[in-house]
Design a protein that fits this description.
Order of helices and strands: HEEEEEHEEHEEHEEHEEEEEHEEEE
Mean pLDDT: 91
Number of domains: 2
CATH topology of the largest domain: D-amino Acid Aminotransferase, Chain A, domain 1
Length: 331
Protein backbone atom coordinates (compact mmCIF):
# COMPACT_ATOMS: atom_id res chain seq x y z
CA UNK A 1 0.00 0.00 0.00
CA UNK A 2 1.25 3.52 -0.83
CA UNK A 3 0.50 6.48 1.41
CA UNK A 4 -0.31 10.00 0.22
CA UNK A 5 2.37 12.32 -1.13
CA UNK A 6 2.21 14.52 1.99
CA UNK A 7 2.90 11.50 4.18
CA UNK A 8 5.82 10.43 1.98
CA UNK A 9 7.32 13.92 2.22
CA UNK A 10 6.84 13.88 5.99
CA UNK A 11 8.61 10.52 6.27
CA UNK A 12 11.53 11.71 4.16
CA UNK A 13 11.80 14.89 6.21
CA UNK A 14 12.20 12.83 9.39
CA UNK A 15 15.19 10.87 8.08
CA UNK A 16 18.25 12.24 9.92
CA UNK A 17 20.65 14.36 7.89
CA UNK A 18 24.15 13.19 8.79
CA UNK A 19 27.48 14.87 8.22
CA UNK A 20 30.60 12.70 8.00
CA UNK A 21 33.35 12.75 10.61
CA UNK A 22 36.79 11.72 9.35
CA UNK A 23 38.00 9.73 12.33
CA UNK A 24 37.44 9.09 16.01
CA UNK A 25 39.86 11.84 17.07
CA UNK A 26 37.40 14.42 15.68
CA UNK A 27 34.44 13.23 17.78
CA UNK A 28 33.50 15.58 20.65
CA UNK A 29 33.19 13.83 24.01
CA UNK A 30 30.92 16.15 25.97
CA UNK A 31 27.15 15.53 25.71
CA UNK A 32 27.75 12.88 23.08
CA UNK A 33 25.97 9.58 22.41
CA UNK A 34 27.44 6.93 20.11
CA UNK A 35 25.13 4.39 18.47
CA UNK A 36 25.83 1.69 15.93
CA UNK A 37 24.79 2.37 12.34
CA UNK A 38 22.86 -0.38 10.60
CA UNK A 39 22.81 -0.87 6.84
CA UNK A 40 19.02 -0.98 6.94
CA UNK A 41 15.81 0.47 5.58
CA UNK A 42 14.84 3.70 7.37
CA UNK A 43 11.30 3.65 8.76
CA UNK A 44 8.91 5.88 10.64
CA UNK A 45 6.96 3.59 12.95
CA UNK A 46 3.64 4.88 14.22
CA UNK A 47 1.73 3.41 17.16
CA UNK A 48 -1.89 4.35 17.81
CA UNK A 49 -3.71 2.78 20.77
CA UNK A 50 -7.10 4.20 19.80
CA UNK A 51 -7.07 2.57 16.36
CA UNK A 52 -5.32 -0.53 17.66
CA UNK A 53 -2.46 -0.64 15.19
CA UNK A 54 1.18 0.00 14.43
CA UNK A 55 2.55 0.67 10.97
CA UNK A 56 6.00 1.07 9.47
CA UNK A 57 6.43 3.60 6.65
CA UNK A 58 9.57 3.89 4.53
CA UNK A 59 10.72 6.95 2.59
CA UNK A 60 8.99 5.72 -0.57
CA UNK A 61 5.66 5.68 1.24
CA UNK A 62 5.28 1.91 1.50
CA UNK A 63 3.28 1.00 4.62
CA UNK A 64 3.83 -2.37 6.28
CA UNK A 65 1.60 -3.66 9.05
CA UNK A 66 1.88 -7.44 9.05
CA UNK A 67 5.30 -8.82 9.93
CA UNK A 68 6.37 -10.44 13.22
CA UNK A 69 8.71 -7.68 14.40
CA UNK A 70 6.00 -5.03 14.03
CA UNK A 71 3.52 -7.24 15.91
CA UNK A 72 6.08 -7.49 18.72
CA UNK A 73 6.53 -3.71 18.65
CA UNK A 74 2.77 -3.28 19.15
CA UNK A 75 2.60 -5.88 21.91
CA UNK A 76 5.45 -4.19 23.84
CA UNK A 77 3.58 -0.87 23.93
CA UNK A 78 0.08 -2.15 24.69
CA UNK A 79 0.78 -2.74 28.44
CA UNK A 80 2.20 0.81 28.83
CA UNK A 81 -1.07 2.68 29.31
CA UNK A 82 0.51 6.14 29.32
CA UNK A 83 1.53 5.67 25.68
CA UNK A 84 -1.53 6.62 23.64
CA UNK A 85 0.37 7.25 20.42
CA UNK A 86 4.00 7.45 19.41
CA UNK A 87 6.16 8.11 16.36
CA UNK A 88 9.52 6.37 16.49
CA UNK A 89 12.40 6.49 14.01
CA UNK A 90 13.94 3.13 13.27
CA UNK A 91 15.63 0.82 10.78
CA UNK A 92 14.33 -2.44 9.39
CA UNK A 93 17.13 -4.95 8.92
CA UNK A 94 17.59 -8.69 8.57
CA UNK A 95 19.57 -11.17 10.63
CA UNK A 96 20.59 -14.42 8.99
CA UNK A 97 22.92 -17.02 10.50
CA UNK A 98 23.35 -14.76 13.52
CA UNK A 99 24.71 -11.78 11.58
CA UNK A 100 23.24 -8.55 10.26
CA UNK A 101 22.68 -8.81 6.51
CA UNK A 102 23.71 -6.30 3.89
CA UNK A 103 20.96 -4.16 2.41
CA UNK A 104 20.66 -6.12 -0.83
CA UNK A 105 20.17 -9.39 1.07
CA UNK A 106 17.72 -7.69 3.45
CA UNK A 107 15.55 -6.71 0.47
CA UNK A 108 15.39 -10.33 -0.66
CA UNK A 109 14.53 -11.56 2.84
CA UNK A 110 11.86 -8.88 3.23
CA UNK A 111 9.89 -10.56 0.45
CA UNK A 112 10.69 -14.16 1.34
CA UNK A 113 10.99 -14.66 5.13
CA UNK A 114 9.79 -11.79 7.33
CA UNK A 115 10.56 -13.80 10.47
CA UNK A 116 14.18 -12.70 9.97
CA UNK A 117 13.28 -9.00 9.86
CA UNK A 118 14.17 -6.94 12.95
CA UNK A 119 13.44 -3.39 14.05
CA UNK A 120 16.35 -1.30 15.32
CA UNK A 121 15.13 1.72 17.24
CA UNK A 122 16.77 5.17 16.93
CA UNK A 123 14.80 7.88 18.66
CA UNK A 124 11.30 8.95 19.71
CA UNK A 125 10.00 11.72 17.48
CA UNK A 126 6.67 12.32 19.22
CA UNK A 127 4.67 10.94 22.14
CA UNK A 128 0.91 11.34 22.56
CA UNK A 129 0.77 13.93 19.80
CA UNK A 130 3.55 16.16 21.18
CA UNK A 131 7.21 16.51 20.24
CA UNK A 132 9.33 14.32 22.51
CA UNK A 133 12.12 16.17 24.31
CA UNK A 134 13.22 13.49 26.77
CA UNK A 135 15.99 10.91 26.58
CA UNK A 136 14.94 8.55 23.78
CA UNK A 137 17.60 5.99 24.62
CA UNK A 138 16.49 5.56 28.24
CA UNK A 139 12.77 5.48 27.42
CA UNK A 140 13.10 3.08 24.48
CA UNK A 141 15.28 0.85 26.65
CA UNK A 142 12.49 0.68 29.22
CA UNK A 143 9.72 0.07 26.71
CA UNK A 144 11.48 -2.63 24.70
CA UNK A 145 13.87 -4.19 27.24
CA UNK A 146 12.39 -7.67 26.69
CA UNK A 147 12.24 -7.40 22.90
CA UNK A 148 13.41 -10.22 20.65
CA UNK A 149 13.01 -8.76 17.17
CA UNK A 150 12.60 -5.17 18.41
CA UNK A 151 15.49 -3.53 20.23
CA UNK A 152 17.14 -0.19 20.62
CA UNK A 153 20.28 -0.15 18.51
CA UNK A 154 23.24 -0.55 20.93
CA UNK A 155 24.77 2.71 22.12
CA UNK A 156 27.22 4.16 24.63
CA UNK A 157 27.73 7.49 26.33
CA UNK A 158 31.53 7.60 26.07
CA UNK A 159 33.99 9.01 28.55
CA UNK A 160 37.02 8.64 26.30
CA UNK A 161 37.92 8.16 22.65
CA UNK A 162 39.46 4.82 23.57
CA UNK A 163 35.99 3.72 24.64
CA UNK A 164 34.58 4.88 21.29
CA UNK A 165 37.30 3.03 19.40
CA UNK A 166 36.64 -0.18 21.32
CA UNK A 167 32.89 0.13 20.67
CA UNK A 168 33.50 0.84 16.97
CA UNK A 169 35.92 -2.06 16.49
CA UNK A 170 33.57 -4.47 18.23
CA UNK A 171 30.62 -3.54 16.03
CA UNK A 172 32.12 -3.84 12.54
CA UNK A 173 32.67 -7.65 12.69
CA UNK A 174 29.07 -8.05 13.89
CA UNK A 175 27.77 -6.49 10.68
CA UNK A 176 27.18 -2.89 11.78
CA UNK A 177 28.34 -0.48 9.08
CA UNK A 178 29.76 2.13 11.43
CA UNK A 179 28.62 4.48 14.18
CA UNK A 180 26.30 7.46 14.51
CA UNK A 181 27.34 10.34 16.75
CA UNK A 182 24.60 12.48 18.28
CA UNK A 183 25.29 15.72 20.13
CA UNK A 184 22.41 18.10 20.78
CA UNK A 185 20.83 18.67 17.33
CA UNK A 186 23.90 17.57 15.34
CA UNK A 187 24.37 14.09 13.89
CA UNK A 188 27.50 12.64 12.29
CA UNK A 189 28.41 9.23 10.94
CA UNK A 190 31.69 7.35 10.85
CA UNK A 191 32.13 4.33 8.59
CA UNK A 192 35.11 2.23 7.55
CA UNK A 193 36.78 3.71 4.50
CA UNK A 194 38.66 1.81 1.84
CA UNK A 195 41.35 3.17 -0.51
CA UNK A 196 41.12 1.67 -4.00
CA UNK A 197 43.14 2.23 -7.18
CA UNK A 198 40.80 2.02 -10.18
CA UNK A 199 40.87 2.86 -13.88
CA UNK A 200 38.47 5.28 -15.56
CA UNK A 201 36.67 3.51 -18.42
CA UNK A 202 34.10 6.20 -19.10
CA UNK A 203 32.42 9.47 -18.20
CA UNK A 204 28.73 9.53 -17.31
CA UNK A 205 26.74 12.23 -19.10
CA UNK A 206 25.41 14.08 -16.09
CA UNK A 207 23.80 17.53 -16.10
CA UNK A 208 26.99 19.56 -16.75
CA UNK A 209 28.33 17.35 -19.53
CA UNK A 210 26.74 19.46 -22.27
CA UNK A 211 28.47 22.51 -20.78
CA UNK A 212 31.86 20.83 -21.04
CA UNK A 213 32.36 19.45 -17.52
CA UNK A 214 32.82 15.86 -16.38
CA UNK A 215 31.21 15.22 -13.00
CA UNK A 216 30.87 11.42 -12.81
CA UNK A 217 33.41 8.71 -13.60
CA UNK A 218 32.71 5.09 -14.54
CA UNK A 219 35.32 2.89 -12.87
CA UNK A 220 36.63 -0.64 -13.22
CA UNK A 221 39.09 -3.08 -11.68
CA UNK A 222 40.58 -6.23 -13.19
CA UNK A 223 40.14 -9.88 -12.29
CA UNK A 224 42.71 -12.62 -12.64
CA UNK A 225 41.49 -13.31 -16.19
CA UNK A 226 42.48 -9.75 -17.16
CA UNK A 227 38.84 -8.74 -17.57
CA UNK A 228 37.64 -5.29 -16.57
CA UNK A 229 34.96 -5.53 -13.87
CA UNK A 230 32.85 -2.41 -13.41
CA UNK A 231 32.68 -1.22 -9.77
CA UNK A 232 30.36 1.76 -10.14
CA UNK A 233 30.72 5.53 -10.28
CA UNK A 234 32.66 8.28 -8.56
CA UNK A 235 31.16 11.78 -8.51
CA UNK A 236 32.77 13.34 -5.44
CA UNK A 237 36.09 15.16 -5.24
CA UNK A 238 35.75 16.68 -8.73
CA UNK A 239 35.79 20.49 -8.70
CA UNK A 240 34.92 22.64 -11.69
CA UNK A 241 38.52 23.06 -12.87
CA UNK A 242 39.18 19.32 -12.72
CA UNK A 243 35.83 18.60 -14.37
CA UNK A 244 36.90 20.72 -17.34
CA UNK A 245 40.26 18.94 -17.60
CA UNK A 246 38.58 15.53 -17.49
CA UNK A 247 36.08 16.56 -20.15
CA UNK A 248 38.94 17.66 -22.43
CA UNK A 249 40.72 14.38 -21.71
CA UNK A 250 37.62 12.44 -22.78
CA UNK A 251 37.92 13.97 -26.26
CA UNK A 252 41.53 12.84 -26.59
CA UNK A 253 40.89 9.32 -25.28
CA UNK A 254 37.45 8.80 -26.87
CA UNK A 255 36.44 5.27 -27.94
CA UNK A 256 32.65 5.24 -28.25
CA UNK A 257 29.52 6.36 -26.45
CA UNK A 258 25.91 5.56 -25.73
CA UNK A 259 23.04 7.61 -24.31
CA UNK A 260 24.46 7.54 -20.78
CA UNK A 261 28.25 7.23 -21.06
CA UNK A 262 31.27 8.33 -23.08
CA UNK A 263 33.77 5.45 -23.06
CA UNK A 264 37.51 6.12 -23.16
CA UNK A 265 40.74 4.17 -23.35
CA UNK A 266 41.56 2.40 -20.05
CA UNK A 267 44.68 4.35 -19.17
CA UNK A 268 43.89 6.92 -16.46
CA UNK A 269 44.21 5.43 -12.97
CA UNK A 270 42.91 7.20 -9.90
CA UNK A 271 42.83 6.51 -6.18
CA UNK A 272 39.37 6.68 -4.66
CA UNK A 273 38.10 6.40 -1.13
CA UNK A 274 34.87 4.50 -0.66
CA UNK A 275 32.64 3.53 2.20
CA UNK A 276 32.16 -0.20 2.71
CA UNK A 277 31.54 -1.61 -0.81
CA UNK A 278 28.46 -3.73 -1.31
CA UNK A 279 28.44 -7.04 -3.11
CA UNK A 280 26.37 -7.63 -6.22
CA UNK A 281 25.61 -10.53 -8.53
CA UNK A 282 25.43 -8.18 -11.51
CA UNK A 283 28.83 -6.57 -11.89
CA UNK A 284 29.38 -5.87 -15.59
CA UNK A 285 32.33 -7.48 -17.34
CA UNK A 286 33.91 -5.24 -19.98
CA UNK A 287 36.42 -6.39 -22.57
CA UNK A 288 38.56 -3.85 -24.37
CA UNK A 289 40.65 -3.98 -27.52
CA UNK A 290 42.19 -1.04 -29.41
CA UNK A 291 40.52 -2.31 -32.58
CA UNK A 292 36.96 -2.99 -31.35
CA UNK A 293 36.75 -0.81 -28.25
CA UNK A 294 34.53 -1.77 -25.33
CA UNK A 295 32.16 -4.75 -25.25
CA UNK A 296 30.06 -5.78 -22.27
CA UNK A 297 30.04 -9.58 -22.26
CA UNK A 298 28.28 -10.75 -19.08
CA UNK A 299 27.38 -10.06 -15.48
CA UNK A 300 29.34 -11.69 -12.66
CA UNK A 301 29.50 -11.49 -8.84
CA UNK A 302 31.47 -8.44 -7.79
CA UNK A 303 31.35 -5.21 -5.83
CA UNK A 304 30.06 -1.67 -6.14
CA UNK A 305 31.62 1.36 -4.50
CA UNK A 306 29.56 3.47 -2.13
CA UNK A 307 29.90 7.27 -1.84
CA UNK A 308 33.23 7.11 -3.67
CA UNK A 309 35.49 10.18 -3.61
CA UNK A 310 38.40 10.93 -5.93
CA UNK A 311 41.59 11.34 -3.90
CA UNK A 312 44.40 11.62 -6.46
CA UNK A 313 45.73 10.45 -9.80
CA UNK A 314 48.12 7.47 -9.78
CA UNK A 315 50.71 7.95 -12.49
CA UNK A 316 52.85 5.36 -10.70
CA UNK A 317 50.30 2.58 -11.34
CA UNK A 318 49.78 0.52 -14.50
CA UNK A 319 46.74 -1.08 -16.10
CA UNK A 320 47.21 -4.71 -15.04
CA UNK A 321 45.52 -7.21 -12.75
CA UNK A 322 47.98 -6.52 -9.95
CA UNK A 323 47.76 -2.74 -9.59
CA UNK A 324 44.03 -2.87 -10.38
CA UNK A 325 43.25 -6.17 -8.64
CA UNK A 326 39.60 -6.76 -7.82
CA UNK A 327 40.55 -8.01 -4.35
CA UNK A 328 41.11 -4.38 -3.27
CA UNK A 329 37.35 -4.24 -2.68
CA UNK A 330 37.45 -6.88 0.05
CA UNK A 331 37.22 -4.83 3.26
Amino acid sequence: MIVTRSKVQSTRALKPKMATVEDISKIPLDNCTIQYKIDGDFQVIQFDRLFGKAEAININGTVRTDFPALEEFYECLIPISKVKSATILAELYAIDDGKICKLNKYRHILHSDTSKIHIGLHTIESLNGKDFNGNSFEVLGEWFNMGNRVKIIPYIIPKSREEIEEFYNKGIPQGYEGIVIRRFNSIWKLKPLLDVDAVIIGFNKRSLWKEGYATSLKLALMDKKNRFIEIGHCASGINRKLGKRLYDYSKLSYITENAETVFVKPELIIEIQTERPYSTDKAKVWEYSPKYGWVSTEDVPGYHVRSARLIRFRDDKEVNNVDLRLEQMEL
